[in-house]
Design brief:
The protein has 12 helices and 11 strands. With 318 residues, it is of the alpha/beta class. It has 2 domains: 192 residues, D-Maltodextrin-Binding Protein, domain 2, CATH 3.40.190; 101 residues, D-Maltodextrin-Binding Protein, domain 2, CATH 3.40.190.
């Protein structure tokens, strides 16, 4: 979830169908798993994973040679994603499978490396610690690649996104930019760059003699969305692709407000010093054979595509 990063549940909130897309459950959430993003999204979710995996064309011998022996012997990548962030990652219509752009891409990348991918649901702020501890092999969860995170994990950059604010379409809060959120209550997911950026802006506000930003941090995006829908928060702060998707699925209940902020790269996260070169090579194969563009097109995310020349390991600029 973004430097720019990283759904509401029908049982909790009617706007799961009416207001927020991509209902999903997080491992630590009390929410029940549901996929109510829309009939079209559910259909896409049920068909995309197998299509994306098969279109990758299977293992690439040159790439497979770059995969460490320990990973080869394991045969399966355990991939962590916070499945409350549609269309990038969310719970499918079966109530338990993680689907979305990142899930499709992870499975296609694993296939090129001669491996399988098991995509599991995890709360966002536990993924990087889980990678460092050896619990997961990859984090594919709309991670912004930034210098601070690169101290703990390696990233393979694969997408471009920004951060956006959403508010209620009727009776919401009008802002032009992040500078206007002084004194506002902002809902964010814990551990995201949005949480950090809201905190940075709050300090700027108070230094200028303005009210601080009230930041409500939640363990998953479902809870942050609920805070906005219920009126506890004035604004939701999340990655631009996710914000746009949720607004489209809200039947007019929500809107994007203000300018997009802090555009930068998403990175697939792997343990420090592990198999980033193999993952980078696999990504370039998917770009060459059309799988990468096919996956992004399937989820309506082609605006975030990056050229192969910009794919790199640890490409953060801030």
């Amino acid at each position: 979830m973004f430097t720019w990063r990283k759904s509401l549940l029908a049982a909790l909130l009617l706007p799961c169908v009416v207001a927020i897309a991509a209902c999903g459950s997080s491992n630590s959430s009390s929410s029940s798993a549901s996929s109510a993003s829309s009939t079209a999204a559910s259909t896409a979710a049920s068909t995309s994973t197998s299509a994306a995996s098969s279109s990758s064309g299977g293992a690439n011998a040159a790439v497979a040679k770059l995969v460490p022996a320990a990973l080869k012997s394991k045969g399966t990548l355990t991939v962590a994603a916070d499945a409350t962030y549609a269309p990038n990652e969310f719970i499918g219509s079966d109530g338990h499978t993680v689907v979305g752009m990142d899930a499709d891409l992870a499975k296609a990348l694993a296939a090129v490396m001669g491996l399988k991918a098991n995509v599991v649901n995890a709360t966002f702020d536990t993924i990087i610690p889980g990678l460092a501890a050896g619990k997961y092999d990859m984090g594919a969860s709309s991670f912004s690649d930034n210098k601070e995170r690169e101290k703990t994990v390696d990233f393979v950059d694969y997408f471009i996104a920004g951060e956006s604010f959403i508010t209620k379409a009727s009776g919401g809060t009008e802002i032009s930019s992040i500078a206007d959120i002084c004194g506002k209550t902002v809902a964010v997911e814990k551990g995201t760059t949005e949480e950090a950026d809201a905190g940075t802006q709050s300090k700027k506000c108070t230094s200028a003699g303005k009210p601080a930003v009230k930041i409500l941090s939640f363990s998953d995006q479902n809870a942050a969305n609920l805070a906005l829908s219920s009126g506890r928060a004035d604004l939701g702060f999340l990655d631009s692709p996710i914000a746009e998707y949720q607004v489209k699925q809200s039947n007019g209940q929500f809107k994007v407000v203000g300018d997009a902020y802090a555009t930068g790269p998403y990175g697939l996260a792997v343990p420090k010093g592990s198999y980033a070169p193999a993952l980078l090579a696999a990504l370039k194969v998917l770009m060459q054979n059309g799988t990468y563009s096919s996956i992004l097109s399937h989820w309506g995310l082609t605006s975030g595509a990056i050229p192969a020349a910009q794919v790199k390991i640890n490409g953060a600029t801030s």
